Amino acid sequence: MRKLRDLLSRGYFPRELPPVYDTSSMRRVATMVNAAPASFWSTTRTSELCQHNVPRSGTLRRPLAIPNPVGYANLCREIDNSWREISRHISKSAISKSTPQFYTAGARAVLPEIPNQADLVPFRALARSSGKTILSTDISRLEKTTDCTVALMTLHARELNVLPAPLDTSA
Amino acid sequence: MTTDELYASNWLISYEAGLRGWLPSIGRHDHISRDPNFDWLRNLGVSFYDDSMVGPVKLTGIAPLLALLQSSAHCEDLRFFELEWQKFNAANPFSRLTVFRDYFKISNAFTNRQIELMSVNNPRECFADYLAAICFCQQTFVLSEEHAPQFGGAIQ
Fold first, then answer.
1. Are B41 and B7 within one domain?
2. pLDDT in tens, A69-113
3. What mean pLDDT, rounded, does chain B reach?
4. Do A20 and B128 touch (CB under 8 A)?
5. Roughly how many angstroms between the first and final C-alpha of chain B, as a whole number?
6. Across A117-121, B35-39, B47-51, B87-91, which has the greatest mean pLDDT?
7. pTM for the full model?
8. Does one domain contain both B33 and B84?
9. For residues B118 and B120, what is the distance between their CA atoms, to the nearest angstrom?
10. Containing domain of residue A55, as a range?
11. Nearest by CB to A55, which of B11, B15, B135?
12. Beta carbons of B116 and B140 less than 8 angstroms apart
C-alpha cells in the first residue's frame, strides 16, 4: 500500500505544473482504501484527460495530460498489487536506462533509473561507438495516445499470440 | 457544471470550482455530491489546488534596475542586459532567465520557477499570455510601449 500512497501523492501531476497544483492530499485515498464506495475501485466509467500545455521557445508547445483521479487511483492500485510481476518483466531489458525506480522521498515517487538526460551521454557514446545504425524516435506523446491496456498487452503479448517469438540468433 | 464534467477533460476545474464554490452547479443539486467517487474524495479532503501559494507578483526592484541601466558605473551589467535583450528579441519573443529574478527583486517569486521577461509588442504575446496561468514560468511583462493588457496576464 506504500507504493499506492506514493504514486498518488508524489508525482501524479506533471512536474511542469506550477507549485499551486498539489496532489499530496491524494495520499488519503491510499490510507482509506477500504472506506471507498463500491463504485470507486470497480468503476468501468471512462474519463478524459485534462490537457496541459507547456510553452517552448518560438510557437511550440509541449502537450501534457492529467488523468482523472478515479481512473488514476485504480491504475496505481493495479501497479501496486502487480509490482512484483511488472518489476520482473521490466528488469529483462538489457538496454533500457529508464527502468522505473521507486523512491521513498522526494517530489516524484518513481523516476527512471537514470533521471537526468545529461547522465545518458556516456551510455549513448558507448552504444554509438559500436553500432552501425542509429534508430531515433520520439515517444513524448506515448502516454496521451496509449493507455494501460497497451502495458498489459506488452506484458502478456506472447500469451495472446500478439507478438512473434524472439528470433533465435544463436546459430 | 455537471456531474459528467467530472469525467471530462475539464474535470480539474469542475471538481475544484465545485469544492471551493467558485462556480455553481447546473440544477438544484451539487454536481459533486451526485457522484459517489468524487463525493468520497471531497469528504476525504482531497484537493488539487493549494491557494496558500497564490499571490500577486510584487515588483520592488524597478527603480534600482532603471538606475542600474542608466549608471555608467555598472557598464558591464548594462552591457549584459542589453546584449541579452537584443539576443532574446532576435531569437524569441520572450526569454527566461533566473537572473531576472535578481534584477527585478521579485520578493515573492517561486524559488523553483524562472522569471519570464517579455517583449509586449510582439504578436506572440497572446500565446504566452494564454499559458500564463499554467506554465512553468512566473510571467513578468516589461512594458516598452503603450499596451493594452490581455486576458489572464498580469501586467507589471
1. yes
2. 999 999 999 999 999 998 998 888 888 888 889 998 888 999 988
3. 61
4. no
5. 33
6. B35-39
7. 0.63
8. no
9. 6
10. 2-114
11. B135
12. yes
Is A161 among the domain residues? no
Interchain contact, B46 vs A69, CB within 8 Å = yes
Question: Into how many domains does chain B fold?
Answer: 2
Contact criterion met (CB < 8 Å) for A50 and B11: yes
Provide the residue range defining the domain that includes B23: 3-51
DSSP state letter for A56: -
B36 and B75 both lie in a single domain: no
Band of residue A14 on the pLDDT scale cut at 50, 70, 90: confident
Poorest-confidence range of A2-6, A146-150, B18-22, B33-37?
A146-150
Q: CA of A49: which chain B residue's CA is closest?
A: B9
CB of B47 less than 8 A from some CB of A: yes
Claim to verify: residue B93 and residue B41 sit in the same structural domain: no
pLDDT at residue A16, rounded to an integer: 82
| B135:A54 CB<8 A | yes
Which residues in chain B have their CB less than 8 angstroms from residue A32's CB?
44
Task: Say how many domains are in chain A.
Answer: 1
* Kind of pairing between the strands at B137-142 and B114-119: parallel
- Distance (Å, whole) CA B115 – CA B95: 8
* Residues B74 and B118 both lie in one domain: yes
Contact B136 A16 (CB under 8 A): yes
Can you read off the three cell numbers belonging to residue A88?
A: 520482473
Among the partner residues A18, A20, A40, nearest to B37 by beta-carbon distance: A40
What's the CA gap between B93 and B100, in Å, rounded?
A: 16
- B110 near A CB under 8 A: yes
Determine contact, residues B132/B34, Cβ cutoff 8 Å.
Answer: no
Domain co-membership, B47 together with B77: no
Place of cell 524559488: B111
Contact B36 A39 (CB under 8 A): yes
